[in-house]
Amino acid sequence: MMWGNGYGMGFMWWVWPVGLVLVLGVVLLTIVTIRVFSNGSGSRAEGPQGNVPSGPVSTGRSAARLLLDERFARGELDAEEYRHRVQVLGE
Predict the structure, then answer these.
(1) What tens-digit pLDDT sequence spans the chain (91 residues)?
(2) DSSP alpha helices (H): ranges in the chain?
(3) 85, 77 in Cβ contact below 8 A?
(4) HSE on the CB side for 48, CA within 13 Å?
(5) This model's pTM is above 0.70
(6) Which of 11, 12, 16, 81 could form a disulfide with 7 if both were Cys (CB 3.0 to 4.6 A apart)?
(7) How many Å apart are CA 37 and CA 59, to the nearest integer?
């Protein structure tokens, strides 16, 4: 027994591909949105070197001195080289 216009479900072959594309589009949009907001929010609050402020801080130290302090704290500079560079900076 035939229902409707006699074509059965054959005329709706396009529903599955369109539905699949819509679902994939929503998933892709969600992933892109999460990446934009998670990566963008953390990097905007930081300076050009990640966690180094780009200008003078309320302590009165310059950005160069702060960078020097961080390099010394990470062990990239020994004490003698650190003192020499602080002296060169004039601080």
Answers:
(1) 455 555 555 667 778 888 999 999 999 999 999 988 887 555 444 455 555 555 544 566 788 889 999 999 999 989 999 999 999 888 6
(2) 15-44, 63-74, 79-89
(3) yes
(4) 5
(5) no
(6) 11
(7) 31
